[in-house]
Design goal:
It is built from 13 helices and no strands. It is 74% helix and 0% strand. It has a domain of 240 residues.
């Protein structure tokens, strides 16, 4: 067989880690459901039906997938460089707010949409640039700065929709609605499936090409593997670290404004149910590979959407989603040591 079709050891390892994490998550969740006198098999069937049961449910799952996938693809680039951007949630809110202001200010039409998407992406970039500069110039840990800037960004947006940009036509604090003519087009009549979903899917091969076929992607991989070797090879490590972090901010901001222009049409305090944090789990579960991220995004979106049907049918709290996300995160982090343990015992050979 040609080497072109041989799955590499690293790919096999990534697949096993993802499958192991998912299986352990379902196993522990099943135990908890059994302790609650709930049939786990029936519960997961309801969850599957709620995510993929008909064309409307499938379209809703894809709509939910869109912001998760866009955020996760950006984080995958950052994580590949071993730069841990935990601030995608704040970057998403800032991008959504700035893009919405532009869309309303221009007043509708294709130009309004394009400008909103661009400014939203740039808003995420600018918000990510602050911790990126602190990382590169001052050596401050990006985990702390990006995480703390989530709160600054979210509360800043909440203040903006409560005072200077609050809509006079609604009771709750929220921005004015974007013009209907600038909203993302619905691509499946009768559903909420919008053009942003196609944009998210189109980004998968683009990010793959960027990471696997360009000089930038090569440098990101080298810096992530060994910064000292990269520096010895003439790569400007600081610039790559900075670029990878702000790139993830660009996609986080794009995810935020896409959610506004495609689904919510205005900025609310509840704009995101935690897409920025979910993106961390998705990127790790997909092993920072664009295709793996795409599949993981659909998987997480299915859990989030299917849980509504599960909660209604079996009287289970919606917190089951957060439980499963938390378990996934734990098992993804623990999967590598566990696989090494199995290899040491001769149970697994890769």
């Amino acid at each position: 067989m040609s080497d072109r079709y041989v799955v590499s050891r690293g790919t096999k390892r990534s697949i096993i880690k993802a499958l192991l994490s998912v299986l352990l998550t379902f196993a522990v969740t099943s135990v908890i459901l059994l302790m609650s006198n709930v049939n786990p098999v029936l519960a997961f069937i309801y969850m599957f039906q709620g995510a993929f049961g008909d064309i409307n449910l499938l379209s809703e799952t894809l709509v939910r997938t869109s912001p998760i996938m866009v955020v996760s693809l950006g984080l995958a680039v950052s994580f590949k460089c071993k730069v841990w951007n935990i601030g995608a949630e704040g970057q998403l809110y800032i991008g959504a707010m700035l893009g919405t202001i532009v869309a309303i200010g221009i007043g509708g039409g294709l130009l309004s949409l394009l400008c909103a998407l661009f400014v939203g992406a740039m808003g995420g970039l600018c918000w990510a640039a602050v911790p990126a500069l602190m990382k590169v110039k001052l050596g401050i840990n990006e985990v702390i700065t990006t995480f703390l800037m989530n709160f600054v960004g979210i509360y800043l947006v909440q203040w903006m929709i409560s005072y200077p940009f609050r809509s006079p036509d609604t009771y709750f604090p929220e921005s004015a609605a974007v013009p209907a003519s600038s909203a993302l087009m619905i691509i499946l009549p009768g559903t909420r499936l919008h053009l942003g979903v196609a944009l998210a899917l189109a980004l998968v091969p683009i990010i793959y090409f960027l990471m696997e076929r360009t000089t930038f992607g090569y440098k990101v991989n080298v810096v992530g593997e060994n910064p000292e070797v990269a520096r010895y090879g003439g790569i400007k490590v600081g610039k790559i670290v900075f670029a990878s972090l702000i790139f993830s901010g660009v996609l986080a901001g794009l995810a935020g404004i896409t959610e506004v222009m495609g689904i919510q049409y205005r900025v609310r305090g509840s704009l995101s149910p935690g897409y920025g944090y979910t993106g961390i789990v998705v990127a790790l579960l997909g092993n920072n590979n664009p295709l793996g991220v795409a599949l993981s995004s659909i998987f997480l979106a299915a859990i989030m959407n299917g849980s509504s049907t599960l909660a209604w049918a079996m009287n289970i709290p919606m917190g089951i989603v957060d439980l499963m996300q938390g378990l996934l995160f734990i098992f993804v982090l623990a999967s590598e040591p566990f696989i090494r343990f199995l290899e040491g015992r001769g149970v697994l050979r890769l």
